[in-house]
Amino acid sequence: MMAGFATVLIVAMEPFGLGGRTMADFSRAMSRRGALKVAGAGAGALAMRQFTLPQQALAQEAAPGVLRWATDDEWAGKEVLDPASPDRLWESLGALYNRLVKPDNDGLPVPDLALEWSPDAGAERWTFTLRPDVTFHDGRRFTAKDVVATVAHVLDPDLQSPSAAVLEIIDVDGFETPDDQTVIFSLKQPHADFPMLMLHYSMYIIPEGSSAEEIGTLGIGTGPFRLESFNPGSTTRLVANENYWEGVPGLKGIELIPIADVEARISALMAGQVDFIDGFSGSSVAVLEANPNVMLQELPSGNWTTLVMRCDQAPFDNADVRQAMKLVVDRPFAVQAVLQGHGVPANDHPVWPGDPYALAEERPQDLEAARELLAGAGFPDGLTVELFTSDIQGPMASLAVVYKEMAAAAGINVDVKQTPADGYWNDIWMNKPFCTSSWGERPADQVLNEVFRAGATWNESFWEDAEFEQLLDDARREIDADVRRGLYQEAQQRLMNGSGNIIPFFTTDLRALSSRVQNFADTQRDLNYFTVSVE
Q: How far apart are CA 131 and CA 194, in angstroms?
């Protein structure tokens, strides 16, 4: 046993196969409650699996007023507290920092550090009026200069922030700060939805004059919690900011406990060792619901799981191959087989049905067309590919197995490579030619620019399409809402047909909490760090 860690054993399912049955046979045998008999947890022989959990997570009694949150150890100990960094510890951001605006339950911007905002007639200059009498954790007063410093940091090319592709529309040399509570953004081109960009997680405000190292390790913000101890790869502790501008938070503290494997996170919650988990699939719902000490919450969301083909590597550098790989997917079946119905079909673009710019176009399975495309691309007898995946996020591994079965019907042999959760985002993602990935909900403008624009840090499929990018630029400057919607939808159409992402479904936002957690409403789409409390 490693020093400072404890080992637990849980019963886990091995990834399933269809065992010679047809898709129709498997579909008929499925039910929403058949959680342990289907793909997400896997069906087949039971196996004992061993996981290591941080020792400090295993106290017999939780500290009063402290929320223990099991994170997915996304960057395997390389995390930083810098909101703009590609390696940010995202679970800490809303606790340590505030943005100018925050999303309401419809995903629209409402006041946070900014009280109000308005554009000029051409939507090229946006004026934000800031909240007075706000201080950072170190006592410095929040002013307009901190907003300017935050944007400059996000767009610093040395940082290689994934958000730069979204926010580079801001002219960093064009800021005006007529007084401490007013900041005027100048844009390189008009953007009628500019306040939506201020919802970006990188726009959590940092104090002027902070070095990159200070931002990444000290976490000095204006948020409801301040940093007590930062331990990448182990437990990070936050304590209530009693000088918070909104009042005293409901929690005394938060512990962020990294547990890479999703089944280990579930086990820790059911054993009472943590209080909050997310990132699990619908296959775990029945087990969690059966535990009287666990509360389950489910909300529609734009979270999406994807199979990523690198467009710069063979055979996926051929657009016909990519299209064939997409056409083998039976999307309604995937929702049932992988998610047990806890989601809705998607059609290879990431803008979810709740977004006003979403393109509503179905993509039915077409095996004959897939075979014809493969033959035309030089693969008349089919092809063999390796698909890398992991258990780090709920649906990824099970989607890989289900995809293997669907692709086989078109002559595509998929060799699924299960890899460790620890280090997956560092070692596999954006490195292997074909792998699984998982994303949280983002507004249309953000996700299309952040994940699919050429040169973007997180353009995971390395797709490049100048016409797609021109559509995004045109949509941003278009004042007429209907015309703007059409441009975004045309961009989604190009993405569906050209990119290297297979996006079969949007997942329901599933989260599970200990019964000791209070004031986390099941209608609340984002965790409100300020109001949540525990017994």
A: 19
